[in-house]
Amino acid sequence: MKTKLSIIIVSYNTSGLLKQCLSAVLASSGLKPKELEIIVVDNGSNDGSQEVVNKFRIQNSELRIELIENKENLGFAVGNNIGINNSDGKFLLLLNSDTLIETDTLITILKAMENDSSIGAATCLLQTTDGKIDPASHRGFPTLWNAGSYFLGFEKLFPASRIFGGYHQGWKNFKVPHEVDCISGAFFMVSREVIDRVGLLDERFFMYGEDIDWCFRIKQAGFKILFHPGVKTLHLKKQSGRDSRTDQTAKKNARRKFVETMAQFYSKHYLSKYPDLVSKIVLGLLWLIKIFI
Q1: What is the Cα 33 distance to its own chain's centre?
Q2: 187 CB contacts (<8 Å, ≥6 apart)?
Q3: Sign (positive/negative) of CA torsion 242, 265, 146, 168?
């Protein structure tokens, strides 16, 4: 296996963003052409995304840039799994098409993982356009307490509290690399060894939750998950295919899908951890929320 890093980008009608994303990757990789491969999995786009990738292939013939075309939108998890199964890298990076990697980010995260085999997955400082951290890149697991504190507003009141801030872990030192429970699928570097141990993304999660589920399984297998704030990637959030919502009906459907995912994650990982009555109440509340959204 000669390839050090395989970058998997799942795209759905994001041709303009995809062009920027690929340009940023090529400008900042820090790797030799034979050490890097880029695999774009297109989920049935009709906006010229395929032409963008093909143009990059011609312009960068020394580098393996592969385009896999799905006939329809198969979802984030399925798309990434297709890319993973067609990759050759010792390490893999799931990367959103609405991201712009800054200089030295790839090589820094890659070296951190190469130097510590106990790190199963890692991310950089994922920053939104307002200069703030993307909260999805620095999370604790959504236990009943963590999720309840977040949705009831206690975390917002006490963001640096270990008691109430467990979902986004705001008490940690953001100036130094440290462990977290969960990182975002927008920039998710993982080792091939980990994938061989824990399996691919769970394809039952169509839009949300697949990154949390993967992190949960990676931690269960005994690996660390690293958050490295020393290098950055800009996340143009809400603009990629699975995040952008242009009308109210689509936004409502997305919120319902998110609630469905919460119930799905709870049923998979927490059903056996809490008493039956508690689980019935939790799942019942989620069902009601979905109906009245």
Answers
A1: 25
A2: 93, 94, 95, 96, 99, 101, 123, 124, 126, 137, 233, 235
A3: negative
Q: Which mean pLDDT values do the consecutive 10-residue runs of the chain (293 residues) have?
A: 90 95 93 95 94 94 95 93 97 97 96 97 97 95 91 93 94 96 97 97 88 96 97 83 60 80 86 88 82 76
Residues 6+ apart with CB under 8 A from 20: 100
Give pLDDT tens digits for 107-160. 999 999 999 999 999 999 999 999 999 999 999 999 999 988 998 899 999 999
Smallest Cα–Cα separation from 189: which of 150, 239, 224? 224
- In this structure, CATH architecture of domain 5-138+174-242: Alpha-Beta Complex (3.90)
- Position 260 scores a pLDDT of 82
Provide the pLDDT for residue 242. 47
The encoded tokens of residue 144 equal: 């009943």
